[in-house]
């Protein structure tokens, strides 16, 4: 399964990224998510497959979240550890 994704960075919290389908309007995301995230800044677009290696997230987990919730929020890493994904 291939998916075209847009990845946005948060202007409020370094290391926080939001993955969405590239063609999905951001206005369709939950208002409370966007309120906490800040105005999304496009970081990159990519083709996401379950086998693709990502720096801080499992691609299969990201794809499952896109199917279930329509987005995946990658939190910044904890001091001394990796970021925990939002289920």
Features:
alpha+beta
Uncertain parts: none
Strand content: 25-35%
Instruction: Please identify the structural class as seen in this structure.
Output: alpha+beta
Question: What summary fits the major beta sheet?
Answer: 4 strands, antiparallel
Straight-line distance between termini? 20 Å
Secondary structure: helix percent: 10-25%
Give the overall silhouette.
globular
Strand order of the largest sheet: 3-1-2-4
Supply the number of helical segments: 2
Order of helices and strands: EEHEHE
Mean pLDDT: 90
How many strand elements? 4
Computed CA radius of gyration, to the nearest angstrom: 12 Å
List the helices and strands and how they pair.
Blueprint: E1 3-9, E2 17-21, H1 31-37, E3 41-48, H2 59-68, E4 72-74
Short description:
The protein has 87 residues and is α+β, with helices and mostly antiparallel strands. It has helices at residues 31-37, 59-68; strands at residues 3-9, 17-21, 41-48, 72-74.
Describe the fold and architecture.
The chain has 87 residues and is of the alpha+beta class. Helix content is 20%, strand content 26%. Strands 3-1-2-4 form a 4-stranded antiparallel β-sheet, with helices on one face. It is globular. The two termini are 20 Å apart.
